[in-house]
Automatic annotation (TrEMBL):
Its job: Na(+)/H(+) antiporter that extrudes sodium in exchange for external protons.
Highest taxon of the lineage: Bacteria
GO biological process terms on file: regulation of pH
Keywords tagged on the record: Antiport, Cell membrane, Ion transport, Membrane, Sodium, Sodium transport, Transmembrane, Transmembrane helix, Transport
Gene3D superfamilies: Na+/H+ antiporter like domain
Record's bilayer topology term: Multi-pass membrane protein
Pfam families, per database record: Na_H_antiport_1
InterPro entries: Na/H_antiporter_dom_sf, NhaA
Catalytic activity: Na(+)(in) + 2 H(+)(out) = Na(+)(out) + 2 H(+)(in)
GO CC terms, sorted: plasma membrane
Entry's family note: Belongs to the NhaA Na(+)/H(+) (TC 2.A.33) antiporter family.
Stated name of the protein: Na(+)/H(+) antiporter NhaA
Amino acid sequence: MAKLINLKIFSHFFRSSSAGGIFLLICVLISLLIANSQWSEGFKEILNFELGFNTSTIHLKYPILLWVNDGLMAVFFLLVGLEIKREIVEGELASFAQAALPVLAAIGGVLVPALIYLFFNNGDFLTSKGWGIPMATDIAFALGILSLLGNKVPSGLKIFLAALAIVDDLIAILVIAIFYSSDLHFLYLGYAGALFVLLIIFNRMGFKNLLFYLIPGVFIWYFIHHSGIHATIAGVLVAITLPTNEDDTDSPLEKLEHALTSPVNFIIMPIFALVNTNITFESVMIDGLTSNLGLGIILGLFLGKPIGIFIMSWLSVKLKIAALPESTTWFHVLGLGLLGGIGFTMSIFIALLSFQDPLHQNEAKFAILIASTIAGIAGFCVLNLYNKRQKQKI
């Protein structure tokens, strides 16, 4: 009986929206402990160990760290692409009325942090490359913290945050593709483009079997990886081509989305956190928090995100372009904006693309961890305190 109860509790936890964020946090803590222990050098050697093979025509031998950041993260971006397409076809972004508020709020939540970062780093050629770091929102952590509040917040606020984070991810994907790509190799781009067109043809011809999309998708990843554009974009391209529908029947897109959600939340994202947050703390990193790089990230995420989200939401409502979700107040939007400052996964990912210098990477990661922690706690407190005050008035 006790075992049955434990299994039910375990099953309920992994189905909850906060589980992914909690598991991710555990992996962050483990990574930080390893990085500041006697196992630090051994862990780095593991991450630098090369897997794969090379031939005269095929180059697929890379360090484990690169396989995680370019390979596993392509699967993460595939899931993000599936979510974006589903929301556009049948979800919260399906009509202008539904999409206006989260789209405009996301734009504000992207522009203001980037401007704040550039305000501090515009004069430095190296650090100015990181302007995309404070633009991102970690949907797993943000929704996880919001779910901890349960029915203390209106259900419409959760939908608003989810839609906003998805638009935020779309903008981040475009930024990565356009601004964080290296020298382009057009032959490989041509190969990838031809396969992408083939997948569109499969879609138009009504092919439902996922293998028709996933097998060519692997080759798209290979060609994109060698083209100079970051390989993770391949996941988004494949997602765009998958068939879906507007009714309740499961489409190939929805089947793949359901199949990927748990592996991404409980395997891929934790592995990414494990290998990319192994920060060895040094006294110079504390000083780095008050450097232009650190201030740009921290103030961009903690102040820029809520300011941008709040102002654009307020303007869109006042101009009657959009309306707040039912039972949602401006205090709710403020709390949501603070939760939007949890950059973490995507911010760390962009930091790795922005800087080659390990010192800059570690300073950026540390600033992201600090800013995301403060933003998460502040967002939770604002929403929780507002709920308590409303109860006292009743």
